[in-house]
Amino acid sequence: MECGSVCDSDGEPATVYDTKDIKARKRHKCCECGGKIEPGQVYKYVIGIWDGDLSTFKTCLVCSRIARDFCCEHGRLREHLWDVLGFDYVTGKLADHWDDAAGAAGKEK
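and the corresponding structure tokens:
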């Protein structure tokens, strides 16, 4: 599988981009899964300028590692996986077409 086949961006690359691991001093919310990043936990901090707009992202290490392993680009991994695979890795929800496939597989036995 090519890197771009799972995660693809419609926008231009960032004109400025930096990322680092930071130890949280206060509670934050992961931009991918919405989970809590508690004080003392390490998270991935990204700052960049896209289309002239400055943006920052705080990502828990679980989501950051998933993105590192499965997505060449930063962010929106949860949305990309839903679009491509029909799976939400946070809630475990499967898209409706998975229910149809499971029913068809059961009838073949």
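(Above: one complete record from the training split.) The first helix runs from residue 3 to 6.
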